[in-house]
Amino acid sequence: MSPEAELRRQVASLLVVRGSGHAEDRQRRYPRWELPNQELRRLIGEGIGGVILLGGSSTELQQRCQTLQSWAREPLLLCADVEEGVGQRFEGSTWLVPPMALGRLHARDPERAIALAERYGRCTGRQARRCGLNWVLAPVADVNNNPGNPVINVRAWGDSPDCVKALACAFQRGLASTGVLGCAKHFPGHGDTGVDSHLQLPVLRHDKARLERVELPPFAQLIQTGVDSVMTAHLLIPALDPELPATLSRAVLTNLLRDDLGFQGLVVTDALVMEAISKRWGAGEAARLAFAAGADLILMPADADAAIEAIVAALQSGVIPREHLETALARRQQALQKVAAAAASGATGEGFQDEPLELDGERSLALELIQLSLETQGPLPLPPLNAEGINLLRVDTVLPSPLLRADAPSLALAEAAGYRSLICHPQGISPWQPGADENPLALERLGDGNVLLQLFLRGNPFRGERDRAEPWSAALRQLQKQQRLAGLVVYGCPYTWANLRRELEPQIPAVYAPGQMAEAQQAALSLLLGSSEPSAMAVEGFTD
Length: 544
Known about the structure:
- Strand 1, helix 2 and strand 2 (about 50-55) form a beta-alpha-beta unit.
- Helix content is about 40%, strand content about 10%.
- The chain is α/β, with parallel strands linked by helices.
């Protein structure tokens, strides 16, 4: 192999591209970002060093990881954004409540919350490993102290530095015990932003003293705990660098993260296809700037070939010193050796490969977390209906929604209690009238009957500020004024729950569940409706 070809292959090994967890191209869920198999196989054969995966079942992922590795000459970094357990992204594994649910528990029972966070990390790592992943892009170390944050929100472990430090480090300890790599994100802190970096570049105008007091402590503690990698944030912090966002800033990645905080592990960019970066810098330029700033791994460049060529050219011209390449390669190799050593030593557990994809203990953890995170208000359960009611559901994903299958408890249990289901979502026909501030629901379109309102709302990427404009507080006032509100369930965002519960009259029953999965729906509606099919655990929910 020529020196130039070898250099290109070395640089390629520092790229992580996006692939589908499904085997077939036609199954790709997001073809804009998930490379087709022919392209993916070519890049892996040319030395691409990692793949981030999404979609499919746990068993499909297992096979997919084996296939991807078979295409490579060297071990791959295989990762996924499974901040809420592997089941968040891959069916058949355990989907856990969002991290912020433990933050709320931490406020009243810190020891129990920390113990559960460690089990959370262990569950995530064990299932990731069984599916073929060796790197989990978690824990989130952002301090979500901005209730209007559209993208971090419930993904954070809490809204105070001490809470996030305690729980994120407990998660990392659990994850590390399984031999899977962890990743603290999004450095130096994405929690106090009101803008989604998937869509535009947020600006964080805090001075360095504030950053050292609030944003940085969780990262510093995770570094001391031994977290394997740190992911950058696509946000501009003028106090650190007035020109370049953190992902592209040497002041942030080298001076602050490496020199001041002493981090010696892998630095990985957040996805470079996100519009905070891709709107302003080309694929090659963004990759070159990030690598020059101190990143070791380039995640999801908009064009992998352009990224490789730009970094190779910068190395050949001396713009980026060869020592940086050698150091990045060594860090990547050390991470892979750590994974291999853990597997060889049995750190992942005896008989690991023969375990089922979901153990009873892991499912019990999921149910325990759901029960501990439920909150209620008003008299429960609802009295039986005298006439047909309306089950009005708002979901924040385009239908068909993975949360609302035909047998979803939010549909089935409500319908069994006499409520006729109507579903609305932002890209469908909305049941409210824009501009009708005090009467947003077109009640004449809903028909007669009392309304059970179920809101699936949480911070989600790519939605920006659209959710803030939805007038659910006014809708509650409208329904209560006409004495048609039977009850309320909020799944997801605690800030939405806090705002809406203030609007509720004392006699209106309401339940909050941080999780949105079927088990959370079952638990919430069992409380609200007095269902004859109670949830699997009888742990008393938190009421205040």
